[in-house]
Amino acid sequence: MMEERTMKKYIISLAFVLAAGIPVFGQTSYLSEIKIVNREVVKTGDRQANVKMTVSLDNLDMKNQHSLRVVPVILSADGSQQQELPSFVINGKVRDKVQQRTEAFEDTDLNPDAVVKVRRKNGTAQTLDYDASVPFKRWMIGGDLRLRAYVTGCALCDEGDENTSTGDIFPPMTPAYYSPFLQPKEEIVKRRSETRSARLQFRQDSHRIDPKFKNNAAELDTVRNSISLVEDNNDLTITGIYVTGYASPEGTFAYNMKLSERRAKAFTEYMKDDLKSVDPKLYHVDWKGEDWVGLRAEVVKHPQLLKIDEVLNIIDNCGDDKDACEEQLKALVPPEIYKRLLNEMYGPVRRNEYRIEYNVRHFDLAEGKEMIKTRPDLMSVSEIQKVADSYGKGSPEYIDCLMRGAKAYPNDVTAVNNAALALIEANRTDEAIRLLENAPAEGELLNMKGVAYVKAGQYDKASQAFSEAQTKGYSQAGENLKLLKQYVEYMAE
Predict the structure, then answer these.
(1) pLDDT tens for each residue of 238-247
(2) The domain at 363-491 falls in which architecture?
(3) Of 121, 130, 297, 389, which is most buried with the most CB atoms under 10 A?
């Protein structure tokens, strides 16, 4: 009976202890008593993730028989990947002696991965210094450094249940690259021009214009219509018509200079008589004689021409004696080479070019919204920007307006820069790159191209673009290049 009563008392006492939440088999929750100070997680020059920290044990009350193994763990931001680092071990007084005897007797290390092992002296101030590294991986950026604790030396230790965070590591790097919007300048006077060619046929050794000869009637109609279109447009005011005469190389250089003069003057006088509404004072005449630059352009259009490299070499190395160059072309073998030049490539070089210069009136916003659909080239870049702004930055209409402006003014730095910036901000990076790859090699545009390449993940091309922009004197590109190099190194494994 006595034993039965004793057993009942034990069961009741145990139930009371459990209900009160009092640990029965000894404390195994130690991480809450450990304090991490001076934690530092950096990427080293040899691309290691290095963890340094001081672990304060001042508040740790360690059971004599317990051994606490703490494993720092790098956990990715999404929790899908992890990397354990070497552990550190804290022993209670008795457990430490047991381990030391065992290790000495068996000539072994019971905690071979531990970088630090200490015996806890309860009730005293005590710290340990931790320093360990693992290879850096890109997934560690934005991750978390956690501590996992494993307790041994007790009957029912919940190994691995203790888990706590020490905080985030490797904050994501998001460089702010300099990619400015350029404010368009107002055009006080909107000057525009159109250059066209009039290839009229002349009878041999003649400069008289005969509208009935060959296709001259159609050619003259084209000239007449192009000038009339400008003259009849109330938005435009003609300020000058500039005629320049050119000749092909057959014949002597001196003769062809005179011939181009006579034909340019004849063309001008014909147009004065034909378009009497145009002030004759607006016409200006010039002549250039033989056009070897134009001839080269025509030859390049005929890649199947025999000995084309020799032909181009003669043209490219032609000095002041143009008649000698013409003789070299005539001397090419077989003779069919020169015949093709004469019959197929000399003709387009014989021409009069005329440039119509005019001023364009300014448009208000309502007019601009209509004009941009048909003739954005008659608007100023500033007017185009105002129309775009009226639709709201980043809207499809905003981007469409700026793209029309860039197409109308492909060599205007401001127009192309702002169109590319709008595309980049709209995540239409491939379109921005195509636009900028065909743009003038100006510092601002090279810099913007570098920004577009960065967004596309093409870091080598971005680096080259920033370098070229810096060479052009665009200093902000140098800062962008520094940011890019820092980012690439930060991400490198």
Answers:
(1) 999 999 999 9
(2) Alpha Horseshoe (1.25)
(3) 130
